[in-house]
Every structure is written in structure tokens, then in C-alpha cells.
Fold these 4 entries.
Entry 1:
Amino acid sequence: MKLGALFSGGKDSTMAMHWAVKNGHKIACLITLIPESRESYMFHYPDVEFTKQQAEAMNIPQIIKKTKGEKEEELKDLKAAIIQAMKKYHIVGITAGALASNYQKKRVEKICDELNLECIAPYWNYDDNKYMNEIVENNFEVIITSVSAEGLTSDFLGKKIDAELIEKLKKIKEKTRININGEGGEYETFVLDCPLYKKRLVLRGFNIQKEPNSAVLAIQKLDFMPKNI
């Protein structure tokens, strides 16, 4: 099927795309909503403006739409962006990186039902440990770009998800009951490289913004590099 991918730049939306391609589907475009508010119920906030570079790295066209990030109202913006993708790229379905959030999944499915589109969320209710291990096994280079949960300090910002980091998340979970996959908003991520990329991204500049109960890695500069170098 020709699909549009709901794309935030993080691991979950990218993993959903990766699954779709491995299973014979074509990603015709990326669909990215940029919320003006950090309080968005639906959309990823940190560093989302750098999804343009990720789209270039994958050589996939991107539809970008801004939204105020207001509850429910932002769904109208999402629907408009999906309709634009249908008209321009003739998609018949979308991929979504939903892992366990009923709020997000039900609303995306409702829009798809209204537009007669398939909704593919391949990692819905997937085993947390297996999912995190698959990110590493599939050669994803993913960094943490925000933290907002007990036990996750600013020291985690910029760290790559690898076997060692996964073990650290598991130990924190034993004490604080976080979701190790970050589905509860405990942390956000940015994908620098994966099998979908034609060239990889390298982080060249950033700053750390700390708040009372959270911290964000604000990307300032990314460079493109050839693969395998």
C-alpha cells in the first residue's frame, strides 16, 4: 500500500515506518504537525522543526502543518494535513507510532475511518523490552532529547538508546514505575540514523534547557554524513 507516515522525528513514528517498508508498503510522504504549545496532547514537541532534515535524509517528501496544540482542535489540523496527503500523494493509509496511548490511537483511527484510510500501528501494545531491543537490533541511532520523569535527569539528554541505556531505564522503572519506552511522556527522542536513511545525521550543536521538573536538548545544528562512515 502507498502510505503516509505520521512523523514526529522520534523513534516510535520512525519504527512504524520501518515496519511498513519491511512488510512491502511504500512510504509516499511524511505528515508532521508542529505544535505551538508544549502541552499538545497529540504531537511531539522537542526539535520537531528538524524533521525537515530527517525527511531529506530519507529522501521522502514531507507535509508540514502548524497547530496551536489545543486539545481536540489540533485534530482538525491533523485531518487537514492527511487530506492534503491523500490529494497530493494518493495515499490509502497511514502509519502511526502509537504504543499504548488510547487517547492518540483512537483519535487517529477515527480520522482514518472518516477518510476511509487504513491505520497501521504495528507496535501497539507490543512488549516493552522486545520493542526497545528491536530499536537497537535494527541499527537505529536514537538520542534522548527531553526528560520529564522521576529518575530521568538531564544527564540522559543526548544519550543514545543502546543496550546499556535500556538496562538503566529498567533499573529506574523498578523504583519509579516509568515506561521504559517513554510512552507516558517520560522522555522524547530524535532519530539520527536508521535503515530508512540514505545519509545519516550528526549532531553538531545544541543547548540544554532545564526547568523544575524537566529538561530539553534543543538542537541547533545537524550535518549530513555519508552512510557507513
Note: The chain has two domains: 2-120, 140-226.
Entry 2:
Amino acid sequence: MELFERVSKIAIDKAGSRPKLAEKLGIEYRTFAGYFSAERQHNFFPLLPTLLELYPEISRDWLWFGEGEMLAKNIKDDEYVTVPRVATELAAGAGSFLDSAEVIEELAFRRDWLGHKGQIKNLIVMTVWGDSMEPTLHDKDLAMIDISKTKPHTGHVYAVTHDEALYIKRMVVEPGRLIMRSDNRSYSDIILDYDNQAIMDKVKIIGRAVWWCHDEKH
């Protein structure tokens, strides 16, 4: 069963109809119906948290992945664990200064799901700003960083400081150099010479991005 088949089932079983569910979500039915086309389905994703707030008994695993039953079993508190979101922002662009690592909130995740991302003690969440990593990462997205993964590997996305600025970039490792590359190819590569100790002393890999999510844009 595809995601929008599951949404339709919720509309019938819980709201009574698609128009009634659209009303509960606070959107026009014409807009809601348009989300069912393949080209526009991604526009509905930011509404999924609202849908789950309306019907908290709906299983997250069933809604997102089609796994298990529609109605969630009672979840014990110890099945959730929190990951700190820190105040420092990751620049997907020109770079932001690493001012602080102050924890501004704790975000809750399912313990079993989080276990596939890394050791919980090594995970932090940071905010992305800028457009240099689009379409992978957008401005104001959240990225989960595993701070134990500090060895760069080609193709992976890392949070890295360079010359006192904090970036999130895709790494390319080549003989004698490290390339910080933007997915948005309108941005130039940042090429670091491994043999230039003065440059490498200013580089520190904070960790590898193991998960990210898109924030709703208003």
C-alpha cells in the first residue's frame, strides 16, 4: 500500500471522507486532492506531522513505511530517547561561524529506529542554512550528525569546520587533497591540500550526517 493509499484510508476511517480530512488539515480540498498526483506528492510531506497530531493513535511506522498495523500499540516511555539539537548552524553556502554548541532543545526519536543511525551518545542535531546543498539539503533543514565518524569518505556528507567557519558538504577524498563539494553545482569546490599543514590545521571534521529532514516552508 502506497503512502497516499494509507492517507485515503485515514480519510475514510477517521475523518469520514477526503474533503473532511482536508478541512481538518486546514487546506482546501482542491489543494489536498492535487497532492495525490505523483508530481506534487512531496508537497504533502510537511503535513504528515499535523496528520499524526490529529490522530495520534495512527502508527508512525504504518503511515511512513506501511509496516505493521494502522493503529499503534501502546508505546512505553523507554521506547523513546532524546537527541540534543545544538544552537550552532551548519552553513550550506559561505560558512557560518562556530559560535556555540549550546543545547537548545531535546528531540525525541524511537530508540529502535535511532539505533540504526549510530550510538545514541554520539548523535547531535544541527540546523542547516543556505542553498549550496540543494536538492539534498535545504535552508532550515535539520541534520543529525554522528560525531564519532570523523574520517572522511568519498560521497558522504559531513559537518566540518574550515578556517573558523562551519559547513555541511559532501566530501571527495583524492590523493593529496580533500574536496568539500556542494550538491548545488553553482557553488565552487573547496579544495584542501593535505600537504599544507597550515591549511589542514584549520580543518576539523565534526562528524558525518546520518539523517536529515526537510522543514516546512511558509
Note: The chain has two domains: 3-65, 78-213.
Entry 3:
Amino acid sequence: MHRNQYDTDCITWSPQGRIHQIEYACEAVKQGSACVGLRSKTHAVLATLKRSSSELASYQQKIFKIDDHCGIAIAGLTADGRVLSRYMRQECMNHSFVFDQPLPIGRLVTKVADKSQIGTQRSGKRPYGVGLLVVGYDETGPTLYNTEPSGVFNEYYAMAIGSRSQAARTYLERTYESYADATVDDLINHALLALKESAPDHDINSRNISIGIVTENQPFQALDDEKVQPYIDRCQAAEEGAAPAAGEAMEQ
């Protein structure tokens, strides 16, 4: 990206009313591997594509457990994601110690957004180059939030961020109305199908997929490797079963 006199820090506005450092941080999120989040009336689910720097390296962790009632998926700079995950864990522990109850997800996301925004208004800091999908279960039920490096956050029924995430969002926009009453298996199936749209060569397997699940009666859990395989098999079986049905409909 071409450098200019307005992108040397995050407190200088360009004549067009833009802060380039924040735009660069948002671009880092767009270059990260894709993450998908969905919620129903009873569950919230995360699904992520993991990347490896080489064939000799392990895959990077993309899903982090914050507390028993919430977890996050990250897209962008993994190091910045780890810093924010530690901050979120500390806030959850402090709230539980003082009030003896879990920290509401909306309040936790607001704290993270405020911390992110500080990096956009001080010359000695830079914006965090990571976007978060935050899922949790509190007194309001399952929740899903997305935070951006600028400090902006929004609540969603379903959302996808990261590289080639527009394809996943298109799938989610087409099917989200069925999520409210979906079972956890159906919700995961939709998440994998959306993620497959963003995967290189549409290839998803147990090595490059992570899944996170949270419900009212079950603490947040992250699934990797062989624990993910049954869901991938179910997703592939559903796709193979749908193909003949579509062909029969066309013949009729």
C-alpha cells in the first residue's frame, strides 16, 4: 500500500477525513483466515479456518476460551488476539470475584471496544490488528458480537470475518432465518457450510477447522482435530444427500 504523509500515526486525519492507520488495521483483519459465528435461541457456535505457516509448522490457534460462559474467534494478527484474550479473561475473573456472577457479554464486549479505541487516539499506540467474534450465554440468552480495530462493535444473528468472508456472509444471509430454532448440530452444519464457501478450494478437514460451542447448561468448549471429524462427516453427508434431491427436482 502506498505510503503518504498522513499514515505515520493514528491521530492524523487525511484531507478526505480518513485515518489510514485504522484502515490498515482493518485490512489486517480482512487478510486473516475466515471465522464464522451463529446463534440460535439456545446455542451459540463459532467455526474457524486455521492456517499453517508451512508444512512443518503446526496450525495457529484461532478459538480462545475466555470464561465458562463465553469464548472468541480471531481474524488478523494472532499476537494481538492473544493480548485481548488475556485482557478479557482478567475482566471476567475480576467481575466474578467482586460480584460472584459471570460478566454479561455485552459489558465485556464494550470493555474490549473501549480498549481498542484507545489505540486509535494516542500517537504512542497503534490499533489492534485483529477482529473478534465473541459468543456467550448470559441472562439474555445466547449472544454473538463482532468487534473491529476501530473500537466499533455490533451484535449479530450470524457473522463472518476474515479472508474471503463475503462468500460465507452470502450463505449466512440466505439461511439465517432458520437459525433461531436450529439444534446445535444443525447450527454447526450451517457454520461449516458457510466456512466451506470461504475455504481455499472449498476444502475443509479436521486439521484446518476449529469449532466452539456454548449453551446454557454446558460451558464453552473448543473442538479440534478428531473431535471435529464427526461434524465434517455429517456436513459432507448432508451435501451428498442434497445433490440427488436437487437433480430429481430438475427432472420433474
Note: Residues 243-252 have pLDDT under 50 and may be disordered.
Entry 4:
Amino acid sequence: MTRSNTRNGARGFSLVEVMVALIIICVGLLGIAKLEALMLSSTGTSRLRALVALQAASLADTMHADRDYWGGNSAYWVPSGGDLLLSGTDSGGTTTWTGTNAPGSSPGSCYNVVCNSEQLAQYDLSHWSTYLGTVLPNSTTNITCSLTAGTGLVSCTIQIQWNENTVAANQQEANVGAPAAFQQQTYDLVVQP
């Protein structure tokens, strides 16, 4: 009699219970996979944004180093306290600068050669934009410098725009706004050279 009692008390799992457990585990694993993809995308996005911030700070440093050009010297700027407006568009690693008194697009070498302020700005912008084009292809950079009348102080705004490949965490986030507007990013930095 003792043998039959142990058999009745030691029942196993039914097939339905095993299938329900497998479905719950699969749903959990799919959620973890989605979080992993979102985490990987966010890491790439934050890396790119940090590189853009470093590049803008690098250009700000070159502006501080070449105050004769960026500081509102009337020989390079529009006469009578005008503004300096530069727009650079990267196309396959080559940036074309346009705007009021933009430095030329093919700079000479300023390495071991004495350059004036405009040549140095041209050289710095060329090398800066070449590196930015490798980090951030198909980007647009706008540099706007304004000279405050009477004070002689210059304020420059560096604006870098680019498109990001982003992953939405859920359907609601994906539906907010147009996808192109969701991926267009802008970084602004105000500098006083």
C-alpha cells in the first residue's frame, strides 16, 4: 500500500503546463531582444552626438586661436559692422563653403609657412570640415558671426545638422511626427572668439 500512495502523490507536469511555460519564456526573450536592439541603437546615437559636440568645440578652439579673422576684423568682414555668414555642406567628404566673405575652398598649406588670418581660417575650416565629413557624412554646417555695433564684440553660432538612424522603443514613439523630422538632428554652439 505504501507503494501506490507514493505513485499518486508524485505527478508530473502536463503537456499544457509545459506549453504555457514555453510561451511565457519566449515572450520574455523577445522583450529582452527588443531592449538589446534599442540599447545598441542608443549607444551608437550617443556616440555620434558626442563626436559632433567634440567637433564643434574643436572649431570653437580654432576660432579662439585666429581672433584676427573671427574677431570681427574689418578687412575680412563686410564693411560697416556687417555679419559673417558661412554655410558648409558636406558631400562625400568634400565641404563647400559659401556665404559672405567665405574663405576659399582650396587652402594652401599653413604648415611651416607664415599665413595671414584669412589663409589660416581657410586652412582650419578645410581640415575641420574634412574630418567632420569622415565622422558625419552628408552633414550641413552653418557658421553665423555677428558684430555688436559700438562694443566690437563678436558672437558666433556654429550649427551642425545631420540625419540619424534611430530605433523607436514602441509604436507610439514611432508614430510621433514624421520619420524624417524624427531623424533630423541639430547641434548649436555659441562662441565668442
Note: The chain has a mean pLDDT of 77.
